[in-house]
Amino acid sequence: LPVNYNFFNNKIKIYAQEDIVRIIKNNADINIEMQTEEALNAPISPDESIGFLRIFEDDNLIYETNLYPSQKIDRQFFAYILTNICWFMLENKFKIIAFLTITILLTLLIKKIIEKGN
Length: 118
Fold this sequence. Notes:
By secondary structure, the protein is of the alpha+beta class. Helices cover about 35% and strands about 25% of the residues. The chain is built from 2 helices and 6 strands. The protein has helices at about 75-90, 95-115, and strands at about 5, 15, 30-35, 40, 50-55, 60-70. It has a 4-stranded antiparallel beta sheet, with no helix packed on it. Strands 1-4 form a two-stranded parallel sheet. Strand 5 and strand 6 form a beta hairpin. The N and C termini lie far apart (about 65 Å). The mean pLDDT is about 85.
């Protein structure tokens, strides 16, 4: 899974707490359902559940377990700040462009007024 707020450990492996061993019919319809977030935000602790795994045999739930990260990942302050600045800029790009455009136009207008006064 992708990990936010840490540039050096930006992906993490996940695992189920226990293995499953089960005898199934040869023609059984097996479905595996795994649910996690699309990305995790550091800090991440190996003992915190980050999702679950369910296994179905012929539409009957036969196994369910929580999923855990394979390692501890700390949040890097610089990565946290830079990521949030990038997200802010992406979410507000039109507002930022409008603000910069107005600021430049006002600066040019003030400069022109000052030059006329001299």
